[in-house]
């Protein structure tokens, strides 16, 4: 285990710096030290048995996501888009597998397994690109959720697929009939459901009331492991039990606390799972038939890309978003390893077939970051040039206010103006955002506010105020430069993302600048002091003092922000100055803070 940790510590940060993802780092670490690499670690079976708990915990968290209200909101993309993707991919890939000579039982498992995409890799990639909240991110999450759900019935039905045509006969010694195993599975599911209602929830309530955080965490792990081992004891997948436990607790009051407690263990064990998969990848097969393995991996990715792209386009998703989503979901996934391993253990798939499939899925996951890099550097710029529509023509009369950027801040400003009967012209450079807000009846023009012709069309020369809430620093500064140069008499109210953004706007002559997180941070600090028992008078005095000091400090930093050495020195002295000034103010006649310890 120490060797596994060393390999992960060395490779995972390297792959993250190269923007290839932690999952790829874990796979590479396993392949490097495994029996087919340097041979430094050979206990693949023992490692995989422990590592499977990472997938078990992942499925428990997936089950927790299935809160009825949330699932109802996502019903169309999950069961529509996700269901069509899994069924279409499974049928096509399974049909091709049957054409290659496998029986329908094995083809069904292979088709569903290859239809899976990597939940860990895709969500991590979207999170790094800050695209989880975008349409592409929401649709990817919906498809991945249905994929994860579809693994559960497949794992439960595996015993029924063990027939005479399979590698292991149905009535082989030591293996019970498929129907008997299915009946046992249904009985175990009933036990899990009953136990969750009668035993688990009351127990968690008692632990939450009388136990500490560590006891609750231990109870959460015991719940997941207990449900998993119950299924494993009757020959079913451990993941099935964990998933059921998660589903049954999705609408409980402990959902968020369970997620927070399980998440660190899931990340650790899931990383170990990918290392074990890398160790189990038979590189000997790749060395003997590199063309076959690479060809199958590339064919898998191309088929899934074409299927996802076609399905998403039928759902009337724009071509650029459909292409990005198809690239993100083109690779194989971690649940394919689980399904193929279980099918091999049940005798549905031959060991040689399992080795080849695991290697093909692994190679597809290794190729996925290269496809994402190609998308970022080639496809996205091309789509941006090709797919973006022409800017809107502004034909409205002159309005007193122009809002450049119609995101969260711009929308709030516009609502306040509308409430007071003040007309405005809203400009937004993202046509996806324009399409979205127009669905709710908002009048927004698509265009880049840094373009002079658009500002002239919006009659900036007749406006009384220019609101600049753009959060992108470069776009904000570029827009401000154009406005200041061509409309110097137009007052500007700007939003600053951070101190550097603030300094750059000040350099351009803007005076009315609002730091986006500063007021909210003060409000949170005020509430924290009040909740901790500090008196209201002392709280308001402390908040006002801090606001005044921070604004003075900001001016001092702005005066020297071009000199990095002085800027660093002033920043380091700020905290100590604040403490000393506050103590001096207290000694100067103000009453001391009214804290619980002093009352």
Textual characterization of the structure:
- The protein is mostly helical and 599 residues long.
- It has 25 helices and six strands.
- It has a six-stranded parallel β-sheet, with helices on both faces.
- Helix 5 packs across helix 6 (104-115).
- The model is unreliable at 1-20, 163-177 and 589-599 (pLDDT under 50).
What topology emerges from the helices and strands here?
Elements: H1 2-17, H2 22-33, H3 44-65, H4 68-73, H5 75-99, H6 104-115, H7 119-128, H8 135-157, H9 178-210, H10 213-233, H11 238-248, H12 255-280, H13 283-288, H14 290-314, H15 319-328, H16 334-346, H17 351-387, E1 401-404, H18 408-419, E2 424-428, H19 431-438, E3 445-446, H20 452-457, E4 465-468, H21 473-486, E5 492-496, H22 499-507, E6 512-515, H23 518-531, H24 536-559, H25 564-587
Parallel strand pairs: 1-2, 1-4, 2-3, 4-5, 5-6
Helix pairs in contact: 1-2, 2-12, 3-11, 3-12, 5-6, 5-8, 5-14, 6-8, 6-16, 7-8, 8-15, 8-16, 9-10, 9-11, 10-11, 14-15, 14-17, 15-17, 16-17, 23-24, 24-25
């Amino acid at each position: 285990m120490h060797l596994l940790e060393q390999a992960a510590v060395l490779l995972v940060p390297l792959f993250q710096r190269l923007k290839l993802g932690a999952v790829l780092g874990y796979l590479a670490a396993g392949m490097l030290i495994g029996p087919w690499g340097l041979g430094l670690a050979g206990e693949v079976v023992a490692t995989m048995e422990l590592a499977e708990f990472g997938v078990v915990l992942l499925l428990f968290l997936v089950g927790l996501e299935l809160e009825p209200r949330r699932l109802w909101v996502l019903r169309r993309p999950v069961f529509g888009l996700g269901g069509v993707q899994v069924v279409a991919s499974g049928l096509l890939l399974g049909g091709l597998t049957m054409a290659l000579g496998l029986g329908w039982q094995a083809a069904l498992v292979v088709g569903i397994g290859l239809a899976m995409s990597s939940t860990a890799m895709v969500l991590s990639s979207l999170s790094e690109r800050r695209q989880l909240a975008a349409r592409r991110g929401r649709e990817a999450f919906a498809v991945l959720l249905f994929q994860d759900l579809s693994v559960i019935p497949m794992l439960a039905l595996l015993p029924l697929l063990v027939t005479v045509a399979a590698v292991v006969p149905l009535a082989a010694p030591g293996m019970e009939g498929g129907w008997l195993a299915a009946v046992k599975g249904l009985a175990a599911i009933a036990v899990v459901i009953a136990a969750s209602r009668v035993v688990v929830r009351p127990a968690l309530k008692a632990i939450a009331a009388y136990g500490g955080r560590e006891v609750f965490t231990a109870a959460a792990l015991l719940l997941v492991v207990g449900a998993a081992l119950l299924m494993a004891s009757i020959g079913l997948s451990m993941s099935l039990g964990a998933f059921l436990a998660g589903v049954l607790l999705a609408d409980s009051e402990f959902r968020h606390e369970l997620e927070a407690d399980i998440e660190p263990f899931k990340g650790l064990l899931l990383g170990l799972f990918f290392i074990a998969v890398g160790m189990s990848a038979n590189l000997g097969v790749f060395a003997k038939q590199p063309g076959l393995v690479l060809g199958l991996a590339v064919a898998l990715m191309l088929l899934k890309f074409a299927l996802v792209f076609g399905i998403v386009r039928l759902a009337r998703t724009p071509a650029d978003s459909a292409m990005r989503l198809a690239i993100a979901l083109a690779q194989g996934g971690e649940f394919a390893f689980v399904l193929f391993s279980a099918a091999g253990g049940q005798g549905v798939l031959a060991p040689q077939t399992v080795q080849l499939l695991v290697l093909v899925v692994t190679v597809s996951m290794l190729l996925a970051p290269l496809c994402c890099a190609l998308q970022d550097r080639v496809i996205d710029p091309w789509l941006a040039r090709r797919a973006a529509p022409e800017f809107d023509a502004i034909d409205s009369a002159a309005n007193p206010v122009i809002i450049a950027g119609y995101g969260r801040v711009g929308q709030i400003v516009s609502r306040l103006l509308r409430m007071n009967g003040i007309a405005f012209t809203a400009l937004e450079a993202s046509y996806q955002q324009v399409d979205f807000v127009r669905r709710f009846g908002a009048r927004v023009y698509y265009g880049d506010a840094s373009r002079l012709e658009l500002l002239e069309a919006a009659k900036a020369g007749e406006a009384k105020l220019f609101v600049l809430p753009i959060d992108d620093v470069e776009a904000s500064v570029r827009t401000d430069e154009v406005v200041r140069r061509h409309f110097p008499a137009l007052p500007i109210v700007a939003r600053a993302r951070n101190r550097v953004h603030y300094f750059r706007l000040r350099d351009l002559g803007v005076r009315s600048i609002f730091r986006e997180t500063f007021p909210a941070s003060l409000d949170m600090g005020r509430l924290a002091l009040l909740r901790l028992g500090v008196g209201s008078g002392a709280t308001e005095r402390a908040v006002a003092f801090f606001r005044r000091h921070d604004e003075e400090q900001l001016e001092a930093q702005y005066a020297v922000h071009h000199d990095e050495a002085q800027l660093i020195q002033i920043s380091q002295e700020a905290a100590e100055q604040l403490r000393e000034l506050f103590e001096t103010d207290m000694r100067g006649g103000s009453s001391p803070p009214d804290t619980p310890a002093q009352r």
